Amino acid sequence: MSVTSIIQPAVISALEQLFQQTFTAKDFQINETKPEFEGDYTVVLFSLLKPLKQSPDQLGKTLGNYLLEQQPALFVSYNVIKGFLNLTISDSYWSDMLNKHFEDKAYGKKAGNGKKIVVEYSSPNTNKPLHLGHLRNNFLGWSISEILKADGYEVIKTCISNDRGIHICKSMVAWQWFANGATPESTGMKGDHFVGDCYVMFGNVYKEEVRSLVEKGMSEEQAEKEAPVMKAAQQMLVDWEAGKPEVITLWKTMNSWVYSGFDITYKRIGSDFNKMYYESDTYLLGKKLVEEGLQKGVFFTRPDNSVWVDLTADGLDEKIVQRKDGTAVYITQDIGLAVNKYEEFKYDQSIYVVGDEQNYHFKVLKLICEKLGLPSSDGIYHLSYGMVELPSGRMKTREGTVVDADDIIDEMISVAAAKTAELGKVKDFTETELKELYDTIGLGALKFFILRVDPKKRMVFNPEESIDFHGFTASFVQFSHARAKAILRNEDSNKEYIYQGSSPLLPLEKALLIMLERYPQIITQAAADHNPSLLVIYCYELAKTFNSFVTEHRVLKAESADKKELRLRICRMTANVLASGMELLGIKVPERM
Question: Which H/E stretch holds residue 158?
Fold first, then answer.
């Protein structure tokens, strides 16, 4: 239970006793008191003035006096400033909180609430490696899954592999025509990079064939259709859907190369899944639902026999759900997969972590599911996020500016090694310890830098800016954790001792305790908002306050035994909360650095 959950009913009770009216938590706000004012928590009075016919000063004093009189163990003083009632919480409340939780490594995490959430993320194409944009997707999907778990939900992490279609056939044709039987093993390449090179090769050949046909007098539009390499890819797609054995064998082989490469990258970044779906298994899902939708009048058939849904009354437009030849489109598959997931997991919410270029698609998906009366519709939620750009601008596959995930990870570890060497504090580390430290710092910096941005916003990623031992970075938080652990390694604390609070809490001591007490609320808010950046900001602010605290106050040589024990317990709880918060973001914190 947080202090705000105690203050709120206390204020409601006071108002009802004083004014003989009924109040709820929605009638007023409680915020942390701003640093420039005295107090810990502020009751915002403005919404109460008109119904109570009170002036701000009059209401503040009446309410403040009543709270101090009724709950002297919780409230010790108050002040009123222009409609804000600033309340000071007793030191005993904070010391009790510290004594209860300073060793609790599960602090902030809730017991199961009986609700189930499916989170779908990553969802790559099997024709190229994961890239920087995929990293944002994976980091968001994984971290929001862990945050939801910490908030009491049962979470099933899923991924759908986009393993069929014309883009896959392009890589296959390129391998047949130009690879001369080469394999990832024969070339020493990671499987996903090998297949990705085949895809790039297709694009280069296609571009050259179109140019050549245009030079011979063909229109560009016609040349794009008649290019031999493109016609071969289209024929391969037909052969794949017909189940031609040699095509299926090649498809399985090349996909296995890609999956092997993906597995290595997933292991490096810490992504994992409870359930894998494959488009090759799901692309026909939903066709039965199209038939049912036609019978219910949700869909209509055009003269060419294609099937559509009219969403103009919902502010959208008409959307095709089945082609004239009876084949499914993406939305058809997604309708079917939504039902499939619901039947399998009976979820309360199904979160799709997909970039904001698909905002329209997910509006359509939810609307169609609602119109069909599917139980899966209520839980559909699109966790939309902005694209990642480089300082040079947006990444583009055709222009060769896409940054492979493996390359950016390698670069981050290299930057971590260089930045750490500059500090010169790891001379006693072994080679194995250094490698682990550089991986921890490099990957931590990458995740933190990407997750610190609100998912809805686009972002620019700059590796050099992401590792700074004094800035808004993972390395600063990691250093703060290591600093706390260094103090604790030298402690001689008596864990049976109960801090008595014999001397008043100093400002930074109290500030840290207030921040530590907020941790469970931050988890709940980040879960509710599907926004890991709230946790990132919290971890940074906690680390910053902790560094100010240990710079200002001695811990091991404190002015009294009571203060020493207080500060050691603050150090221990801070280290635990930093480790816990960063773990929910997928970031390790070293014991020393």
Answer: strand 154-161
Nearest to 505, CA basis, from 556, 557, 551, 570: 570
Q: Where in the chain is the domain with CATH 1.10.730.10?
A: 406-584
Fold topology of 3-89: Gyrase A; domain 2 (3.30.1360)
Starting at the edge strand found earlier in the chain, the sheet holding 275-278 runs 275-278, 154-161, 116-120, 349-355, 380-385
CA-based nearest residue to 204, from 234, 174, 232: 174
Phi and psi at residue 28, in whole multiples of 5°?
-160, 165
Spatial contact of 498 and 99, defined as CB atoms under 8 Å apart: yes
Nearest to residue 465, comparing CAs of 436, 451, 482, 445? Answer: 445
Evaluate the CA torsion angle 242, 248, 250, 253 in order and state its sign.
positive
Q: Starting at the edge strand that comes first in sequence, how are the strands of the sheet with 393-394 ordered?
A: 393-394, 388-390, 459-460
And the tokens for 102?
A: 């300073």
* Residue whose pair of structure tokens reads 């109570």 in the numeric block: 52
CA–CA distance, 206 with 178 (Å, rounded to integer): 13
Residue 297: exposure state from Cβ atoms within 10 A (0-12, 13-18, ≥19): exposed
CA distance 101 to 92: 14
pLDDT of 228-254, one tens digit each?
999 999 999 999 989 999 999 999 999
Note whether 102 and 118 are within 8 A (CB).
no
Portions of the chain given CATH number 3.30.1360.70:
3-89
The whole-model pTM stands at: 0.92
Q: How far is Cα 584 from Cα 270, in angstroms, rounded to an integer?
A: 12
| Phi, psi (degrees; rounded to nearest 5) at 359 | -55, -45
| Calpha distance 353→540 (Å, rounded) | 25
- Where does 406-584 sit in CATH, by number? 1.10.730.10
Three-state DSSP class for residue 511? helix
pLDDT band at 398 (very low <50, low <70, confident <90, very high): very low
What one-character-per-residue DSSP string does 17-55 give? HHH-----GGGSEEEEPPTTSS-SEEEE-HHHHHHHT--
Burial class (CB in 10 A: 0-12, 13-18, 19+), 549: buried
Q: What is the pLDDT of residues 336-381, one digit of tens each?
A: 999 999 999 999 999 999 999 999 999 999 999 999 999 989 999 9
Q: Which is it for the CA torsion 138, 140, 142, 143, positive or negative?
A: positive
